[in-house]
Amino acid sequence: MVVLNPNNWHWVDKNTLPWTKEYMNGAFDNWAIESGDNKYVVKSVSSVAGDSNVSQRKGKVICYFDLQLEFDVSVAAAAGDGEEICHGTVSIPEFIHDESDFEIRYSGFEEHEADVRRCFAPKLVAELLKYQSALVAEHSKDVQNGQ
Q: How far apart, in whole angstroms, are the C-alpha atoms of residue 135 and residue 66?
């Protein structure tokens, strides 16, 4: 998308939600980590909804997003046959561009929820925080003219 916008003065917006859905599925589908005695696997990204945009105003590229994310997660024994211990959902109701400490909800993990919170969630958050720089890198060229 090339935009006629002298001196990059006017607002230019690009809806990046379709790309975001592809990014989340590509980054997290079957994403796995091992911690302690368990292996945690994102079986699927079951929902990506909300808003995601890259914009330009007065020559400056900015992004803003407010996403609702849901991950289908399996917990299995790291050793042996890797038999599934439990299965549940990790939901992030507000993944927002200007926050790194966001609410995470857990369901279905029963007595293993504490392990999911302690071992899996911090690594998931670290991976999610890479999204913003990937978003800007991928789409900034589409909202700039001659820079």
A: 13
